[in-house]
Design brief:
five-stranded parallel beta sheet; alpha/beta; 241 residues; 9 helices; single chain; 5 strands; Rossmann fold
């Protein structure tokens, strides 16, 4: 028996609780809850912020019926689970451009369904989660996919290449030159992924409510800024419906 990572288990429980069956909940005037999307340059601290923001919001901006739930690396696996697909399909959906040849070969060999179909499942799950609210969605162009929903707060984290490379070198235990190359490669890969799949420029400031440079701000400071905004916003949402 394969045990799920605790974070994935929590997210799966969220899906089972809220997303199963035909009557998926949507916002109403009484239950409207915000959601947060985090887009990030590599090494700018997106996943770190997600965890810190989750804890901050649970303490300062608690929800009436559940805790805030973070979806980052587990998002694709959660989508596969929701749609009754093997979790192993998640490995074929990196947040970077997949060559057309690799995609076709994978389909012909029966390794996975068409990648377009799998990505559509991920988008559907993003929209379902955002409609419920009380979630933090990291990456996967979540801000673009959910932009027509009026309860989202879309955040972009950026920083200098040098600072981001230093964080990456520490996190992955690699040399600074290696980290710099890795950061540049990942930034390009994410930019191409968003362009190929969603036809948007990930660096377009109009896609976000707020863009923050994390070079000189701690993740705690950023979480506090976002949390204070949501604290003021939630009563307004109750009236918007």
């Amino acid at each position: 028996m394969t045990l799920m990572h605790p974070d994935l288990e929590k997210c799966h429980a969220y899906v089972v609780c809220h997303l199963t069956g035909d009557n998926r909940p949507i916002h109403t005037a009484k239950t409207a809850m915000p959601f947060v999307t985090i887009s990030r340059q590599t090494g700018a601290g997106g996943r770190t912020l997600g965890k810190i923001l989750q804890a901050y919001l649970d303490m300062k901006c608690s929800l009436p019926e559940s805790d805030w739930t973070l979806f980052d690396r587990n998002l694709v696996e959660t989508a596969m689970k929701e749609h009754g697909l093997p979790r192993r399909f998640a490995q074929y959906l990196p947040e970077s451009r997949v060559s057309e040849l690799s995609a076709v070969v994978g389909e012909l060999l029966g390794l996975h369904p068409p990648l377009w179909d799998l990505n559509q499942h991920v988008y559907e799950t993003l929209i379902h989660l955002a409609n419920i609210g009380g979630v933090i969605l990291v990456g996967r162009g979540a801000n673009v996919v959910t932009r027509k929903l009026k309860y989202g707060f879309h955040l972009r984290l950026v920083g200098s290449l040098e600072k981001r490379a230093k964080r990456t070198a520490i996190y992955y235990k690699m040399s600074l030159p290696q980290a710099r190359t890795f950061v540049e490669h990942e930034d390009k890969a994410r930019r191409l992924w968003v362009k190929d799949n969603l036809d948007e420029d990930i660096n377009d400031p109009n896609l976000y409510h707020l863009t923050i440079n994390t070079d000189s701000l701690s993740m705690e400071d950023v979480a506090s800024m976002v949390g204070c905004h949501l604290q003021k916003w939630m009563p307004v949402l109750q009236q918007m419906g």
